[in-house]
Amino acid sequence: MPRPKQGPRLASSPAHERLMLANMATSLYRNGSVKTTLAKAKRLRPIAERLITFAKRGDQASMRRVMRVIRDKAVVHQLFTSIASEMKERHGGYTRIIHVAPRHGDAAPQAIIALVTEPLSAKQATVKEAEAATKQAAKSDAAAAPKDATAAKSEKTDAAAKSTKPAAKPAAKKVSASTSKASKTADKK
What is the CATH superfamily name and number for domain 14-123? Predict the structure, then answer.
């Protein structure tokens, strides 16, 4: 009999776990967030994000792959039309897990898994523009490097000529404590 190799399951069997995670994903897309245990939220995140990635593709094969997990056609339609269009600019990270207070009955760690509906910030767009500008500057510097090579060689020879001057004389040595004691005893005699 085959044994699961991923450790303990969230439910009694692998089939029950798959169905439970599919139902949680359906609730996540329908409501925007789900409050559950931390372990279930961590197991749901990769499944939910993979389904959003399929929805972003938007083709018939992707819809059939999503329909294997989510059986509610209204939720699949919502996923492919509204949720996928909101996530068009994102490259992953479609969900977030927020830790909340433990459950009162058994002190199980609770979490809220929610869709990230905020658009990408202006700061992230600015960072992308700055990276593109840095790449262009690096390319132009690489093109100008052979012209600057002769100037750099002349600067190196000037620096070498300056370094051949004799070094300054070292400062006078300080008298150590043991030699000063010896000189004091010699003075006393």
Answer: Ribosomal protein L17 (3.90.1030.10)
